[in-house]
Amino acid sequence: MASRSPDLWDIPRHNSENAFCEYSRLRIAPSLNTEKKLFLPQFHPDVKSVIPNPQSPVLLRVAMALKAAHVSDVPTIDQIPDVPAVALSTVSALRKGTEWKRKSERLVVVGHRGKGMNALASTDPRLQEVKENSLRSFNDAARFPVDFVEFDVQRLQFLQVTKDDCPVIFHDDLILTEEDGKLSEKHVTSLTLDEFLSYGPPKDPLKGKPLLRKTKDGRIHNWKVIADAPFCTLQEAFQGVDPQVGFNVELKFNDNVDYKDEELIHALETILKVVNDYANERPIIFSSFQPDAAKLIRKLQNDYPVFFLSNGGTEIYRDPRRNSLDEAIKLCLENGLQAIVSEVKAIFRNPSAVAKIKEANLVLFTYGQLNNVPEAVYMQHIMGVSGVIVDLVQEITEAVSAFSRPDVEGASRPKFSQAELSFLLRLIPELVQH
C-alpha cells in the first residue's frame, strides 16, 4: 500500500456490531501480507492524525479492525515487551493431569464449535461453511494446526443431556423446525435422542426435519450451510474425531435458572462418565460460564483443568461472579480453577488485567469476534494472552504459525516499531469502549 487509496477512507462508517464482519469479509487477503490492497471501514480522522506512521498498513488494520474512536486522552503505557509472552504447551501438558507446563511455544488456537460458528445473518460465507458442532466441523478444523475444538454440551433444563440421559452437542437452548406450516420450538433437553438427531440432515433420511434458528434479534433463519452434517452425541465426538485434537468441553447452562447442587452434580457426572470412558489420551479442558458448575466439575475430578468463562463485564448478569475479571480471578483462586477465558473486548479495554491474571498464576484465553482478525490476535500474543478461540480456523492458524516462527523461510509477523506498539496498547482500550 504505497499510497492512500480514496476508497480506503471513504467507505461509510460501520457500527461496532458490524465492523468485524465487514472487516473480515472485505479483506482481499486474510494473510499478513501487508502489500495487498485492503478495503476497510472508515477510520476516524482523529485516530489517523495521532498514528505514529499513518502509512503503516498493519497498524491501520489493527486499529480499524478494533473500531474508530477519539483518542486524545489515551493513558500512557511506559513499557512494551520486546518479544511475545511465553505461551502454553498444550497437547504435551494435557495428556491427563490438570497442571499446565509453560514452554516457549506458539499461541494456543481453539476452533469455536469446530471450524467456526454458523452466523446465519452474516454476509461472510466462511461463517456458513460447515455445520457447527458436528463431526464434520470438528474434523475439518483438525486439518489445520488447532490445539483444541470447542463445543457445547448441555442437559434437561440445565445441561443438554436428553431424556435418554445421553449428553449431546448443541449450542442453543431451543431447537426449531416447521411442522404443518407452523413454527415449532422445543427445549433440546425435552427431546429423546432419536428426536434430537432427526433435526437437520438426519442419519435416517426418512426422519429428517427442516432446521431453523432464531438469532438474538428474534429473527428466524433457515439453518443452511454449504456443507451440512448431522448433530452428534458426546460419545460420537470422542469416537469419530481425530484423537490428536483436544476437546474444550463447554458445560452450558440457562442464565435464567437457579440450580441446586444435586441437579448440577447429576448432569456433570453423566458427562464425566462419557469423558472417562472414551477420552483415552485426548487432551481435555472443561469450561463453563456457570460459576457453580465450574466449581463442581473441579471437585468431581482431578484429571483435567477447568477454565472459567467470563464476559469480563461486557454484559451484566444476576450473579455478580460473572460480571468482572476481578470476580473471575477470585472464583478461580478460591476453587482451584486453572484459567480464565475472557471476552477479548474486556482484555483490550483493560490490558492491565492480563498481568493481574498472570500474577495470580492463572492461564488466560479469550473468545469473541475480534479473535478472527490476525493482527488483533498478534496484539494479544504480545500482551501475554495464552490462547484464542476462533471461528476462522484456517486464517488464524496460518497467521499464528507465521508470527510464531519467523525463522522459517516465508514466515512473517506483523512488523511494529516500538512507537507503534506503544501507540496501539494505548489506543486499544479506547477503540473497544462502546
TrEMBL record:
It catalyses: a sn-glycero-3-phosphodiester + H2O = an alcohol + sn-glycerol 3-phosphate + H(+). Keywords: Glycerol metabolism, Hydrolase. GO terms for biological process: glycerol metabolic process; glycerophospholipid catabolic process. Residues 107-400 form the GP-PDE domain. Pfam families: GDPD. PROSITE patterns: GP_PDE. Its EC number is 3.1.4.46. It is an enzyme of class 3 (hydrolase). Belongs to the glycerophosphoryl diester phosphodiesterase family. PANTHER family: GLYCEROPHOSPHOCHOLINE PHOSPHODIESTERASE GPCPD1 (PTHR22958:SF1), GLYCEROPHOSPHORYL DIESTER PHOSPHODIESTERASE (PTHR22958). This is glycerophosphodiester phosphodiesterase. It comes from Zingiber officinale. The lineage of its organism: Eukaryota, Viridiplantae, Streptophyta, Embryophyta, Tracheophyta.
